[in-house]
Amino acid sequence: MYICPMYSSELIKGTLKTIVLKLLSETEKMYGYEITQKVKELTDSKIVITEGALYPLLHQLEAEGVVTTETVNIGKRVRKYYSLTQTGNERAKEKLYEFADFMNTMNILLDLKPGVNYV
Amino acid sequence: MYICPMYSSELIKGTLKTIVLKLLSETEKMYGYEITQKVKELTDSKIVITEGALYPLLHQLEAEGVVTTETVNIGKRVRKYYSLTQTGNERAKEKLYEFADFMNTMNILLDLKPGVNYV
DNA sequence: CAAATATACATAAGAATATTATGTATATGC
DNA sequence: GCATATACATAATATTCTTATGTATATTTG
């Protein structure tokens, strides 16, 4: 289920966890498929999360106690909701802060104009 | 030669090529060690490029015709200068444009205020 | 002047994170 | 009825980086 992402995959690498934590931090609970669709929608299909990357990450976050799960039956199908724990909320803030700082550093390094559209 | 980088390495992943191409695009020629020092200096040691990552990348870029090399003897030591080819200059522009666009997308996705300091 | 640190290259083993492919199954639109 | 969408999962592979190691010369400092 690969739909030509706009960016060379290198760039997206490493941002997935930050994206997932951010979305969960503002929506109480979300299920995997929902996350992929939300990201696709918000980025106009520029970033497309693959299942092979997302599900293992979610499982890892659960094992770390960052998220808890709740399985709901939708008709005969199963849906697995993820929500942040208290630890998860802190982790989300840390990750967002780190990313913002990283972007500042990259702006300086690459000499991009902060502010307006970088494009 | 690992000097605790400020960011979790995940984030830096994928940006190395962009950084190197950017530096080479504004300095005619640079050698590997010089690149590591310049990045350290410009980022206040927040981003530290390791040799194990840099040298293989430079070799790859040369193999792709993105850079050409010039070996200079400094005393009894060898220094290998890298400079962008014409193809390399275009590649650098593409990479920078892509990265700027990626940052915009991430700003929207993560709901960070564009403009001022993201921190 | 000896030892530590800095300069300068290179590569190999291993870890982390993603892609691609595959599998299973139900639901919906045409 | 068939294609597409929803919804999960995992395994094989690829990519990119860290860590470690190796070689060698130059400079600083106690």
Brief descriptors of the model:
homodimer; 119 residues; alpha+beta; Arc Repressor Mutant, subunit A; 5 helices; 53% helix
Question: What does it look like?
Answer:
By secondary structure, chain A is α+β, with helices and mostly antiparallel strands. Chain A has one domain (17-109): Arc Repressor Mutant, subunit A. In chain A, 53% of the residues lie in helices and 15% in strands. Chain A has five helices and three strands, in the order ααβααββα. Chain A has helices at residues 9-12, 16-25, 32-42, 51-63, 86-110; strands at residues 30-31, 67-74, 77-84. In chain A, strands 1-3-2 form a three-stranded antiparallel β-sheet. The A-B interface holds A 6-15, 17-19, 22, 26, 39, 42-43, 46-47, 96-112, 114-119 and B 6-15, 17-19, 22, 26, 39, 42-43, 46-47, 96-112, 114-119. Chain A binds a DNA duplex (30 and 30 nucleotides) through helix 1, helix 3, helix 4 and strand 3.
Tally of strands of chain A? 3
| CATH level-1 class of chain A | Mainly Alpha
Helix count from the secondary structure assignment of chain A:
5
- The CATH topology of chain A corresponds to Arc Repressor Mutant, subunit A
| Global mean pLDDT of chain A | 87
**Helical content class of chain A:** 40-55%
CATH superfamily of chain A: Winged helix-like DNA-binding domain superfamily/Winged helix DNA-binding domain
Radius of gyration of chain A: 16 Å
* Contiguous uncertain segments of 5+ residues of chain A: 114-119
Structural class of chain A: alpha+beta
Biggest sheet architecture of chain A: 3 strands, antiparallel
Order of H and E elements of chain A:
HHEHHEEH
